[in-house]
């Protein structure tokens, strides 16, 4: 349910016309507080242009602790960056311009989706306790091996049409394409977390997510290339920590490089899926990656090697590959033209064609390697001496 606060009758009617005739209109924040006490199921509040900004922020700040699932949509005559920063800091979920009535309606829908997800999670949450979400990172040091394909389809498979709450995070901060692959039109990206930094809390992170399909949300990468430098690795640690409080599974897509952001994700991952294709450069990179992760003390039992396009007729025998790498291959994803076709359509193949061999392979990987994991079974890897680890990587890359 949603409610509008707007003292001006004409503006109130305009807002009501956007949201539907059944939505109640209240004249003041005091009225709203009484209304909220009487209606614990309310999950979206639209504060109209006449509501004083300071009172809106005070209310929002109080509600993120008292009622974290309640989303506040602030409607203003004009929007600028300082207003957006202050609003996000106060825990306002969405700020929309008064003339953008469709935007108000969309914002209320997003806020209600987040509220529904939060309620569902706290009601049954698939059995996990809060804070026990499992983190899976998909990585390969070589570009184009299929990381985004695996991450997006694995996330869709784990969400299973709404059975579980899953968040897909795009850590490819400069060239991330999760938004394109899932055909999302995000209102926010990971870059919006930067001004919030230590004020970041669960409702603030939830406000940055874009819902995709039942059970599946995404935290997409910044739109501007070059944003990676503005995002400190500690922020990634905070974001993953918050997301795992809310989501049963957090699946992380990565850039093809050992960045500080990737290391921050590895530190919190119960499972790291390492991808390669059946060609010598990709396999050489995979071998180097395995050696590097050994050097950084990531336990081998958290690593899974995945071969993508594994049936390509390139003359390399799988058994030879396993022998050379000295690790078992956990998953073979077959090569199929249906994969790029699904990407062009903006629908993960797993949702579009659940019985396709690529979909079946990825679902099986989820069932065998991800669903049995619990966070309780593996403590986060202590990230002491992070600077030394970077030094280690630098020395290694020069060697
Ligand atoms: N199993 C497959 N069969 C056929 N094509 C595939 C398969 N997996 C991935 N592709 C194609 O390979 C290309 C690269 O895939 P993807 O974007 O998932 O790789 P990536 O590792 O995320 O790349 P980047 O390093 O650029 O982020 C895409 O065009 C995708 O459609
Ligand atoms: Mg990618």
Detailed description of the structure:
The protein is an alpha/beta fold. The chain folds into 2 domains: 2-123, Response regulator (Rossmann fold, 3-Layer(aba) Sandwich), CATH 3.40.50.2300; 128-398, P-loop containing nucleotide triphosphate hydrolases (Rossmann fold, 3-Layer(aba) Sandwich), CATH 3.40.50. The protein is built from 16 helices and 13 strands. The protein has an 8-stranded mixed β-sheet with strand order 8-9-7-10-6-11-12-13, sandwiched between helices. The chain has a 5-stranded parallel β-sheet with strand order 2-1-3-4-5, sandwiched between helices. β4, α4 (81-89) and β5 form a beta-alpha-beta unit. α1 (9-19) packs across α5 (101-123) and α9 packs parallel to α10 (260-267). The N and C termini lie far apart (61 Å). Magnesium ion binds at residues 147-148, 172, 177, 253.
Walk me through the topology.
Blueprint lengths: L1 E4 L3 H11 L5 E2 L2 H10 L5 E4 L5 H14 L4 E6 L4 H9 L4 E4 L3 H23 L10 E6 L7 H13 L6 E5 L7 H4 L20 H6 L2 E4 L2 E4 L13 H14 L2 E5 L6 H8 L3 E7 L2 H16 L7 E6 L9 H8 L3 E5 L4 H8 L3 H4 L4 H14 L15 H13 L1
Parallel strand pairs: 1-2, 1-3, 3-4, 4-5, 6-10, 6-11, 7-9, 7-10, 11-12, 12-13
Antiparallel strand pairs: 8-9
Helix pairs in contact: 1-5, 6-15, 9-10
The protein binds adenosine-5'-triphosphate (ATP) and magnesium ion (MG).
């Amino acid at each position: 349910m949603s409610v509008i606060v707007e003292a001006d009758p004409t503006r109130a009617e305009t807002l009501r016309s956007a949201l539907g005739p059944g939505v109640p209109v209240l004249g003041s924040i005091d009225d709203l507080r009484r209304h909220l006490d009487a209606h614990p199921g309310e999950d979206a509040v639209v504060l109209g242009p006449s509501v004083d900004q300071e009172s809106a922020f005070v209310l929002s700040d109080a509600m993120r602790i008292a009622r974290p699932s309640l989303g506040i949509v602030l409607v203003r005559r004009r929007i600028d960056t300082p207003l957006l920063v202050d609003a996000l800091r106060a825990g306002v979920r969405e700020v929309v311009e008064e003339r953008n009535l469709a935007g108000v309606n969309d914002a209320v829908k997003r806020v209600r989706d987040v509220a529904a997800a939060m309620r569902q999670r706290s009601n049954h949450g698939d059995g996990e306790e809060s804070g026990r979400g499992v983190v899976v990172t998909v990585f390969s040091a070589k570009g184009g091996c299929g990381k985004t394909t695996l991450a997006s389809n694995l996330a869709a498979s784990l969400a299973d049409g709404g059975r579980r709450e899953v968040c897909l995070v795009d850590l490819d901060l400069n060239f991330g394409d999760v938004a394109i692959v899932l055909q999302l039109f995000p209102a926010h990206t990971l870059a919006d977390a930067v001004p919030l930094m230590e004020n970041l809390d669960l409702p603030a992170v939830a406000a940055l997510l874009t819902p995709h399909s039942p059970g599946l949300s995404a935290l997409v990468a910044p739109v501007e290339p070059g944003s990676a430098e503005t995002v400190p690795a500690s922020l990634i640690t905070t974001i993953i920590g918050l997301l795992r409080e809310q989501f049963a599974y957090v699946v992380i897509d990565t850039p093809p490089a050992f960045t500080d952001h990737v290391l921050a994700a590895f530190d919190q991952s119960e499972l790291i899926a390492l991808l390669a294709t059946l060609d010598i450069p990709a396999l050489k990179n995979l071998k180097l990656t395995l050696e590097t992760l050994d050097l950084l003390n990531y336990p081998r039992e958290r690593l899974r090697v995945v071969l993508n396009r594994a049936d390509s007729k390139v003359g390399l025998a799988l058994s030879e590959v396993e022998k050379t790498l000295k690790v078992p291959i956990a998953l073979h994803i077959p090569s199929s033209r249906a994969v790029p076709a699904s990407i062009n359509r903006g629908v993960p193949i797993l949702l579009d064609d659940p019985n396709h061999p690529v979909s079946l392979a990825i679902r099986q990987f989820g069932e065998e390697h991800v669903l049995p994991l619990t966070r309780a079974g593996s403590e986060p890897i202590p990230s002491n001496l992070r600077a030394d680890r970077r030094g280690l990587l630098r020395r290694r890359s020069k060697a």
